[in-house]
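Hey Z.,

So I finally got round to the zinc ion thing we talked about over coffee. Here's the setup:
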Amino acid sequence: MQKSPSTDELPFLVLAKSIAQSLPSPRSSTTDAISPLSVASGGTSMPAVSIEVSIGSGHSFFGYFVQYDITLVCPLTHRSWTVSKRYSEVLAFRQRLVELRAAGDLAHHLEEALTLPFPKKYIDAEKPHVIAARIKGFEAFVGHLLALYTECALPGSARGALTGILADFLQVPSDIQDMTFEAPAASLCHDDCTICIDAFEVEDVAVPGGVLKLSCGHCFHRDCLHDWCAQAMTCPVCRGPITRITGLYDRMA
Ligand SMILES: [Zn+2]
Ligand SMILES: [Zn+2]
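And the result:
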């Protein structure tokens, strides 16, 4: 088994990262944008997808390969997770979506992600400018997929086959996949979020998932819980494990 070189031994990755920062983001040619990532974030704009590059080990011509470590932030819960993909995996997934589009009714949803310019295949794929273009291309493409997944997961939308296919590829954590929505109990307005000690307001539940209820029944502001979950996946009050998240959403608010 060949030893993989560490990232430090490969200055081309560092160079690729810095080239990527100077590149513009690819844009979709469709006009009816699904306004990625601002969908349910309640107005706060946050980068939903960021990408690092590293060396993966495994079977390849060179004995190692460049992998793209994609960190995604759930627009509903603001929880983040990281998935590592090779170029070939992203390309193959895009091809699968192209086939789904050809099959019919998902066409409209997929259109925007599929009209984004996709980074090309190269024989000499380890050139920094090739990697840089892939970083930018994947940020946009995966960002659209995440927005699409979120759209599918919002209350009132039909969770079709596409939801599962996207969840698999994006490796959406199970507690986010299983997230459900319900109207807040009338008693919620008498409670405080125990993390920030502020009372829950009507505006907090006017966006899907602005207030999150955990398996144990305790409720928190999404942003307060996000910071907490960076430390531990347990309830801040009772320390029970977070296995299920319910988004509180009052359509009338
Ligand atoms: Zn709070
Ligand atoms: Zn609890």
